[in-house]
Amino acid sequence: MTAVQISPEAEIRLAEAAKNGNQPIVVNNANSKGGVGKTTQTEELAHRLAEQGKWVLVMDLDGQCNLTKNLDAMPTSPKQPTMHAVLTEPGMDAMRAVVQYTGTTSRPVRYANGGGLFLIPGAKTITKAPGEFFGTRARQPIHDFKLTIHHVITSWLMGFDFILLDSSPDPDSEVNDAALLATHEVLVPVSVESMSIDGVMEFLAILRASNASRPSFKLTGQAHLKALVPSKVMPDQVERAGEVIATLAQHNIPHFGDLYVPYTTAGWKAPDDRVPIALYRPDDAAALVYQQIAAKLL
Length: 298
Ligand SMILES: Nc1ncnc2c1ncn2[C@@H]1O[C@H](COP(=O)(O)OP(=O)(O)OP(=O)(O)O)[C@@H](O)[C@H]1O
Ligand SMILES: [Mg+2]
Prior knowledge:
Blueprint: E1 3-5, H1 8-19, E2 25-29, H2 38-51, E3 55-60, H3 66-70, H4 83-88, E4 99-101, E5 116-120, H5 129-136, H6 148-156, E6 162-166, H7 174-181, E7 185-191, H8 197-213, E8 224-231, H9 238-250, H10 277-280, H11 285-297
Helix pairs in contact: 2-11
The structure holds adenosine-5'-triphosphate and magnesium ion.
The site of magnesium ion has 5 residues, from helix 2.
């Protein structure tokens, strides 16, 4: 068990921060291509930001629940609220669904500088949430599913410094649409092996359409494309990663200079533990790149 219920002290601290006008930065880890490193990026960045003393909440928006499984935070009781409960009852105090990541028995996590890592666990049934919400929308605080995540964050979760969203690869997911409307910064991991500029343009079109719909929802600001990040770059793909970065530059698509995430042969997950790689191999080349990216979010 690596996630425990949030302590009353933590709840008080979060409520105080919210009362004092704290505004979380919402970072969406998104790409409708599967297996490119969204979940890995989410957990590594969350861990690194918590190391920097930040209060970080991660929302698992994918029915595969990989993030929740990776952090060993799958609910142990069917009564435990998950993202499914949060999205179908956005009027519910979402803090009830938040658990705190504490590492594992053999690798307990104690973040220096007062940081903390929290999670709202995913649910297999999350894909059913939009339909269920529709059936009960008359008694919900907002009547459009697309606004659920924004509503939940601004109503209950303002005390966090960062909220990291792990989107699913489903291009038609209404949960992803809701995530984009709650997003400040978008980080897109891309596979250099299959990156096509058409695929990137398609994602940028989704982002533009989402931003264009914001005024009608009376939301302020826009989701800003922070960067595309070549990820899982094998040693024999380094040259290709350079070409991808050059293509991004040519099209004025944001990226982090020469930065890419190398493929790590170290074995991504600790063999006996479910922890971010940065925790058990802090010097791993990929883990260090995520540390650099986390620094760019601060
Ligand atoms: N830099 C890396 N080096 C080696 N393996 C990696 C790296 N990044 C991710 N992986 C592995 O690749 C697989 C896919 O990564 P991940 O789950 O993060 O992608 P994803 O985009 O979230 O996938 P999905 O679209 O299914 O949600 C996982 O097994 C993960 O451990
Ligand atoms: Mg994933």
